[in-house]
Specification:
The protein is α+β, with helices and mostly antiparallel strands and 169 residues long. The chain has a single domain, classed as 2-Layer Sandwich (Beta-Lactamase), CATH 3.30.450.40. It contains 4 helices and 6 strands. A hairpin with a 2-residue loop joins strand 5 and strand 6 (137-146). Helix 1 runs antiparallel to helix 2 (33-48) and helix 1 (12-27) packs parallel to helix 4 (154-165). The protein binds methionine sulfoxide. Methionine sulfoxide is lined by residues 52, 85-86, 89, 94-97, 117-118, 120, 124, 127, 143, 145.
């Protein structure tokens, strides 16, 4: 199978409509979640050139290591493309933690105006976070950051939600 991505110019919707079948082909027959999250991150980063594209996954919190207690969960950094990022985010914290808590996509036109935004990179200006939902529970999030203000809208929400649905979680 050819692994090259066809990058196109066009409206945002046209670009997503070209990319989505390619992402479906990349994920076809591959059950490994980490492999698929890696390829989605790379495909989005390559096509759109955003600052940061990647996933955080809900996992046991670091405080629960070595204890028998029912662990508090956190978002833990998963496959991504872009600058190094913070590794753990608690529920309700930052844009990612808020999208987790609300189980809903969050569009942030200006990260400086989002209370509690976690600045992994000082270059980030706007952000969109899409939850990954399995059996009604959030199991992770897709996080995308851009260097310009107001880069994400309902078109991104629609197509990024379509892309995470390809995962068949
Ligand atoms: N800005 C995010 C943190 C993750 S980084 O952007 C990669 C937030 O506020 O949740």
């Amino acid at each position: 199978m050819a692994e090259d991505l066809t990058i196109i110019q066009g409206s945002k919707a046209e670009v997503y409509q070209s990319l989505i079948p390619q992402i479906k082909a990349l994920l076809e027959g591959e059950p490994d979640l980490v492999a698929n999250l890696g390829n989605i991150s790379a495909a989005l980063k390559e096509q759109f050139g955003w600052l940061w594209v990647g996933f955080y996954l809900v996992k046991p919190g670091s405080k629960s290591f070595g204890t028998a207690q029912d662990a508090e969960t956190e978002l833990v950094l998963g496959p991504f493309q872009g600058p190094v990022a913070c590794t753990r985010i608690k529920k309700g914290r930052g844009v990612c933690g808020a999208a987790w808590q609300n189980a809903a996509t969050l569009i942030v036109p200006d990260v400086e105006k989002f209370p509690g935004h976690i600045a992994c990179s000082s270059l980030s200006r706007s952000e969109i976070v899409v939850p990954l939902i399995k059996n009604g529970e959030v199991i992770g999030v897709l996080d995308v950051d851009a260097t310009e203000l107001d880069q994400f809208d309902e078109t991104d929400k629609k197509y990024l939600e379509e892309i995470v649905a390809i995962l068949h979680l």
